[in-house]
Amino acid sequence: MLLTLLPDLVVIRGEERLAMLIRLVADEARATRPGREVLLIEAFRATGGITAPPGLWRGPGYPHLSIALRALHSDPARHWTVAALARATGLSRSAFFARFEREVGRTPMAYLTGWRMSLAKDRLRRRDGSLAEIGASLGYGSASAFNTAFAREIGQPPGQYALSTAQPAREDEPV
């Protein structure tokens, strides 16, 4: 799911270790095996995140932003506010907002919405719960609110997305 938040193209110069990790991440993403995002996290650590263009790639390189990203990822259903995230990082609201937007390339709430939609898309592909259950697990107060947010962000209703992307059952899974 973190992979969906990265840009389509990442240029790496002079970082052989990082280039190797990116190739491994791409291989793992195609294989869709459990734990595949561990390699992406290692790639973040390898760069320090500082020289990359704005985006998720840079955020983990900054301790304050790392705290906020970890909080958003660990509890996406929480009713987050910029003020609450700023408090968690020890920055003022305005300093946190400006730094987050500058380094991550999106506002904190836009990032949270993107993260929630990545989680929702994954669950919809796997048919992991009803629309109401998925929406509630991501902090939406009703199926209607989830449907509206999903359609606005993804460009189609979640039910339609689920039908168009559902993964077929594996042979070893009960039907």
Automatic annotation (TrEMBL):
Pfam families: HTH_18
Protein's name in the database: AraC family transcriptional regulator
Sequence ranges assigned to domain HTH araC/xylS-type in this UniProt record: 66-164
PANTHER family: HTH-TYPE TRANSCRIPTIONAL ACTIVATOR RHAS, HTH-TYPE TRANSCRIPTIONAL ACTIVATOR RHAS-RELATED
Matches recorded under SMART domains: HTH_ARAC (SM00342)
Superkingdom, taxonomy of origin: Bacteria
Organism: Paracoccus liaowanqingii
The entry's keywords: DNA-binding, Transcription, Transcription regulation
Taxonomic lineage: Bacteria, Pseudomonadati, Pseudomonadota, Alphaproteobacteria, Rhodobacterales
Molecular function in Gene Ontology: DNA-binding transcription factor activity; sequence-specific DNA binding
PROSITE patterns per record: HTH_ARAC_FAMILY_1, HTH_ARAC_FAMILY_2
